[in-house]
Amino acid sequence: MIRPLVKKEILDLLRDPRIILGMIVLPLIMFGVLGEVMNYGTQQAISVSQPTSMRIAVLDLDGGNLSRDLVSYLKSMTRETVVVDKIVGDPGLYAETHGYTGVVVIPRGFTANLSKGTPALVEVYTYMREVSIAEASRISSLVGLVSGYSNVVKQRFATETHVSPGFVNNPVLVSGSVTMGGRHYSAGQVNALTGLLFSVVFAPLIVVGYASQIAATTMGVEKEEHTLEVLLSLPLNRRSIVIAKLSGSIVISILATLGLSAGLYMYIESVGGLSGGGSMPLDLLRNVLTPYSIATITTALIIGVVLSTSLSMLLGIFGKDVRSSQSMAGVIWTLVFIVGYGLAMIQFSSLSQSMKYVVAAIPLAAPVLALKLSMTSITGIVWVSIAFHFIETILVLYALARVIGSEILITGLGLSERFKKRGRKRGFAWRRHR
What we know:
Elements: H1 2-15, H2 17-49, E1 55-60, H3 65-77, E2 80-83, H4 91-97, E3 102-106, H5 110-115, E4 120-127, H6 133-147, H7 149-157, H8 165-169, E5 172-180, E6 183-186, H9 187-200, H10 203-224, H11 228-233, H12 238-274, H13 280-288, H14 291-317, H15 322-345, H16 353-360, H17 366-372, H18 380-404, H19 408-411, H20 417-433
Parallel strand pairs: 1-2, 1-3, 4-5
Antiparallel strand pairs: 3-4, 5-6
């Protein structure tokens, strides 16, 4: 007896194309697109982190035989290693402006220290243009490449009796410095900050996703509980009803944003304490996020919430009940995950100018772009994205106003005749079977 009932429930769900769209089609699209985007981002990270693709400038202040040996080692490992006579200004900025992966400075006394069995220091200067896997991989690979010279020194001094075991284990000390947004940080700090921002980059998108779900289901609840007819019988304009619901969803979303911000603050404090250096990531984040960048992120998040809420309200109106409205909200969730993972993976700064504008115009891209580029001076494209989002919000609100005046507000999006006939046939077959 239970089998026909189960079959009936399955057929009822499959009869509604909105359920098929939200629960089956959209996940297939989402993971297919995410796979391509992640593959593209991974290829970017591999291409910039391979030693054979690196161009390195070397400033040899030592001039000894071992420093020349280090230069030969770098030349054999990289695409191009150029010895420069002097560097004016910040080495990291010099590397960025001249197209180098980084600058390696060999201090005076390098050869003398290694000859005496004393660890020698090598300074590595590079830059970071944005928070991305490719940028973090490039920095780590550059520092690791220079550190690899320790293996050459180990083989050379392995049989020497005047050196200590500690020297043989780590003869070359590498100091990594990263220029980012006009400031200087150690490579370890940048890695900690990159990991931290990657963990919070999806926070605004989570808020946007939940805001869309609230907005999409609010009309479905009214239809399912048959209270929409009561509202429409009142001496109120239809637009006033929808605007009130839209405003309420936005207010709830802002409260959720504040709660999420407080939770993220506690999370960052906890992560900072685990590093053994107090709240180092939080302190570093405070130094990186200027009032201007905070204002940019806040503006991008607000416009993202308004856009997603308006779009979800528009999609939710096409549903006939809560279930179908939630299914329509799956469109927003799919967009949230594609945009979030996509922008987190790709190296935005390496895109062409036209592609940057295309990405900036993608709905819900502004909050993630604001976080990715908050540490640098590249904020103009974020405001371009915010402008695109504002225009998209106006268009969605216009479409919402048009739909409000139609019967779709009451009936939702009707099924096509083909689905209706199929549903009637299945229902008839089930009753006959029973």
